[in-house]
Write a structure and sequence with these properties.
Blueprint (H helix, E strand, L loop, with lengths): L8 H7 L1 H5 L6 H9 L3 H11 L3 H7 L4 H4 L12 H11 L18 E5 L3 H10 L5 E6 L7 H4 L8 H12 L4 E4 L6 H5 L5 E4 L5 E2 L14 E3 H9 L9 E5 L3 H12 L4 E5 L11 H9 L4 E2 L2 E9 L2 E14 L5 E5 L5 E4 L2 E4 L3 E2 L33 E3 L2 H4 L4 H19 L11 E6 L26 H4 L13 H8 L7 E5 L9 H5 L5 E4 L4 H4 L14 E4 L7 E5 L8 H5 L5 E9 L12 E3 L1
Parallel strand pairs: 1-2, 1-4, 2-3, 4-16, 6-14, 7-8, 7-14, 8-9, 17-23
Antiparallel strand pairs: 5-15, 10-11, 11-12, 11-13, 17-22, 18-22, 19-21, 20-21
Length: 600
């Protein structure tokens, strides 16, 4: 097997599984250590640089980092990374003085933004401090997009959205609320140097089944209904409500309906419970609020009398696999079921809608009526017009919109400076030894045995009485410290120097995970089977190093290493060391040139 080149920026990046899985590549262990030290403002600024909305995402993120967390490989629950992010927002001091200063003058380049959601605001956050004149057009009165309109206040208070959107607008961004763009061609003619489309996926999918037109008054599209509730246009609904759909929007709909005084809310999903698109914690929250979820039921028709909805008829289905192993839903043979209700909330997905983009301005659309957008640069087929967030590739989530925004900002900067936007600078990497003494480290390397700490919740009876009463209370400093200690410090890497190794096997003996082996080199598939403990997770690398006097190689399975540092403490020659690895993704800046790896 080839020896490992640890100088490659992405090698150790992949080992920090949480950061690798985060679309914005937030340095998770770094900010968790700062939380443990009580340095909440410093931890917040690390988040603000990468994911832009720590307080918002600390409440609402889909948490792609947590399934990747190494802690989840040694016990049931990963570190509560998302809720620790909220800790930085809840307990920080005033950070206004730490934000980039508003430029004294612009650089002469004008950028227009269509939509004031997370993607557009991220681009503006990167470009405004550089002197770009950023103008954001938003159809709603205030900034935030779907963060403000589609996420219920009991999950995300307006005060949090106001605070974190204002941090960006106060950088000198010109925000024009209550302004819809109905013609991209007209905006192009205003002579902007670049245009960013971050309009989201604003249209909810409907159901075209019998009775839909006749019962239209009492059948509501979920995301539109949530927006109306958010702005106070809708304050009540019938006593019996059926929610159709199994995603996070459906969970928000049913929980919102409960707070409007509904007596019976039922969520009905065509798939099984485990296959629902809703995040596991969203389903748990709905069940905690006594909302039943019915699975394997497909809506066939709406029933109605004299123009008023009376219920929904469902066909019962079951999951079967065809001859190719594909999973299909087929009729179960059971009788159809009628669920009486006064209103239905349809939350079966979202769609993009671009009627305001003329088809003769050089933007190519695909067969799904989506603009053709480069996945690396986020530029459309017309130079100077960029897309990001849900508007680029369909509905995802906030953290993906932030990631798109950073990449698009870099492209826009290069476009405006006449540079090749396809040239993407490497990230900045720093690797620093953590050695303070013979057996001392600059970080806490003791592995906490605590199980994941639950986030305190408001009493259900109180929470269900008010749409704007936040349900989750967040960690206090004591719980935050305990949860932070569960982090395994995966960014503090075990680095091996073969020239000084005497092959005494002390590291092998002391390793609690049996992840170190000294052996003859072989092809990778064979080598994985000849280790002290077989390395079966092919998605995780083997760290292979040579220069041993016997001609053997050192092999460490990155999959199960706990980064505890015992190998480095035990090694009599210093062949093992613990190096803190920090990778900073390249964002738009005054000098976003090629960055190089540094060691200290």
């Amino acid at each position: 097997m080839k020896l490992t080149d640890i100088s490659q920026p992405n090698y150790f990046h992949k080992v920090v599984d949480c950061q690798w899985a985060c679309p914005a590549h937030t340095p998770v262990p770094e900010y968790i250590r700062l939380i443990a030290a009580g340095r909440y403002s410093d931890a917040y600024m690390i988040n603000w640089k990468s994911n832009v909305f720590p307080g918002i995402l600390g409440r609402t993120c889909d948490r792609p980092c947590e399934p990747a967390c190494r802690r989840g490989r040694v016990e049931d629950e990963p570190v509560a990374i998302c809720r620790l992010k909220r800790v930085t927002a809840d307990h920080k001091e005033d950070i206004h003085h730490r934000l980039p200063p508003r430029p004294e003058k612009t650089n002469g380049k004008r950028i227009a933004f269509i939509g004031g959601g997370p993607a557009s605001l991220t681009v503006a956050r990167d470009l405004a401090p550089m002197g770009y004149e950023c103008t954001v057009f938003e159809r709603d009165p205030k900034a935030g997009g779907m963060m403000r309109t589609q996420i219920p206040k009991f999950r995300l208070p307006d005060s949090v959205v106001d605070e974190e959107t204002n941090y960006i607008l106060d950088l000198g961004v010109n925000f024009i609320g209550g302004k819809s763009i109905d013609s991209l061609k007209s905006l192009v003619e205003e002579g902007y140097d670049a245009i960013f489309v971050g309009s989201g996926a604003p249209r909810g999918r409907d159901l075209d089944i019998p009775g839909r037109k006749e019962a239209a008054k009492n059948v509501h599209v979920g995301i539109e209904w949530l927006s109306n509730v958010s702005f106070g246009h809708t304050t009540q609904i019938g006593k019996r409500v059926v929610v159709l759909g199994g995603g996070n929007t459906a969970m928000d709909c049913c929980r919102t309906a409960r707070r409007l005084g509904v007596e019976h809310v039922t969520v009905v999903v065509r798939s099984g419970f485990d296959e629902m698109k809703a995040s596991p914690w969203e389903k748990e929250d709905a069940i905690h609020e006594d909302i039943p979820i019915r699975n394997f039921m497909v809506p066939k028709s709406f029933t109605h009398e004299n123009g008023k909805l009376t219920g929904v008829i469902f066909e019962k289905v079951k999951a079967e696999r065809d001859e190719k192993g594909r999973r299909n839903l087929v009729p179960s043979g059971e009788p159809d079921e009628h669920i009486p209700c006064d209103d239905v909330l349809v939350a079966v997905g979202q769609e993009n809608s671009f009627p305001w983009i003329e088809r003769d301005i050089g933007i190519v659309f695909d067969k799904w009526n989506m603009p053709v957008v480069d996945e690396r640069t986020f530029q459309s087929t017309r130079p100077g017009i960029f897309f990001g967030g849900d508007a680029a590739f369909g509905p995802k989530n906030i953290i993906w919109a932030v990631s798109h925004g950073h990449d698009a900002a870099l492209s826009i900067h290069k476009h405006c400076q006449g540079e090749d936007i396809t040239v993407r600078p490497e990230p900045g990497v720093t690797i620093v030894s953590q050695k303070m003494g013979i057996h001392e480290w600059s970080y806490d390397n003791e592995i906490a045995l605590d199980e994941r700490y639950r986030v305190p919740m408001r009493d259900k009876e109180i929470a269900l009485k008010d749409l704007r009463t936040e349900v989750e209370l967040g960690y206090d400093p004591v719980l935050a410290l305990k949860e932070a200690y569960r982090c395994l410090n995966c960014d503090v890497q075990t680095v091996f120097t073969g020239e000084v190794c005497i092959e005494c096997d002390a590291c092998v003996d002391i390793c609690p995970m049996d992840c170190i082996t000294f052996t003859e080199n072989r092809e990778e598939h064979e080598l994985r089977l000849h280790l002290k403990a077989p390395a079966n997770n092919l998605s995780q690398d083997l760290y292979v190093a040579d220069n041993l006097k016997t001609g053997r190689v050192m092999v460490k399975d990155e999959d199960v290493c706990l980064h505890c540092g015992l190998c480095a403490e035990r090694c009599p020659t210093g062949a093992w060391d613990m190096h803190k690895y920090l990778i900073e993704m390249t964002h738009a800046g005054t000098s976003c040139q090629q960055k190089h790896q540094t060691h200290a």
